[in-house]
Amino acid sequence: MTIDIRQASHPEAVRHFTTAELRRHFLVERLFAPGEVNLTYSHIERFVIGGAVPTGSPLSLPAPKPLGTNSFLARRELGIFNIGGPGLVRVGEKAFELAHRDALYAGMGAGEVSFESADMREPARFYLLSTPAHAAYDTVQVRLAEAKSMTLGDQATANRRTIFQMLHPDVCRTCQLVMGMTKLDEGSIWNTMPAHVHDRRSEVYLYFDLKDDARVFHMMGEPEETRHLVVADGQAIISPNWSIHSGVGTRAYTFIWGMGGDNIDYTDMDPVTMDMLR
Question: What is the DSSP string of 180-221?
Answer without folding.
Answer: EEEEEPTT--EES-S-EE-TTEEEEEEEES--TT--EEEEEE
